[in-house]
């Protein structure tokens, strides 16, 4: 499957989370954040998405995952790449190169090229997962 991108999205391979933290931690994380599933958090078999319209909040998401042990960036031949996570802007795509992520673009009726969805490089499915809930239960 693929993951729909909205605004700014932090995309993380689930296997990297589980490798660092364990399957129980991952399942507990999803349970603790259950109210946000389908609103800002969604995932397929390979990748997990969190996101926001705010660059400041994206920085907070990145800091959280770095505190969990993920390495956000790496340097290859003096060029910066995303490493264990990737930030994707729905208008321009990945904000740095990301070797494990495929980005699918579409052209809007107005002629603008925007990101439709992203997928893990090993995933060839075109089925797209996105938000399923439009509001937060109070």
Characterization of the model:
The protein is α+β, with helices and mostly antiparallel strands and 138 residues long. It has one domain (2-125). The chain contains three helices and eleven strands, in the order E-E-H-H-E-E-H-E-E-E-E-E-E-E. The protein has helices at residues 14-21, 23-32, 55-67; strands spanning 2-4, 8-13, 42-43, 47-52, 73-76, 79-82, 86-89, 93-94, 101-107, 113-120, 128-129. The strands form three sheets. A five-stranded antiparallel beta sheet has the order 3-4-2-7-8. Strands 9-10-1-11 form a four-stranded mixed beta sheet, with no helix packed on it.
Give the structure's gist in a few sentences.
The chain has helices at 14-21, 23-32, 55-67, and strands at 2-4, 8-13, 42-43, 47-52, 73-76, 79-82, 86-89, 93-94, 101-107, 113-120, 128-129.
Task: Please give the structural blueprint.
Layout: E1 2-4, E2 8-13, H1 14-21, H2 23-32, E3 42-43, E4 47-52, H3 55-67, E5 73-76, E6 79-82, E7 86-89, E8 93-94, E9 101-107, E10 113-120, E11 128-129
Parallel strand pairs: 1-11
Antiparallel strand pairs: 1-10, 2-4, 2-7, 3-4, 5-6, 7-8, 9-10
Highlighted features:
138 residues, 22% helix
Structural class: alpha+beta
Residue fraction in strands: 25-35%
Question: Mean pLDDT across all residues, rounded?
Answer: 93
Order of helices and strands: EEHHEEHEEEEEEE
Rg, please? 15 Å
The count of helical stretches stands at 3
Distance between the amino and carboxyl termini: 30 Å
How many independent structural domains?
A: 1
Low-confidence stretches: none
Helix content: 10-25%
Number of strands: 11
Major sheet size, sense and barrel closure: 5 strands, antiparallel
User: Which strand order spans the largest sheet, edge to edge or round the barrel?
Assistant: 3-4-2-7-8
What is the global morphology? globular
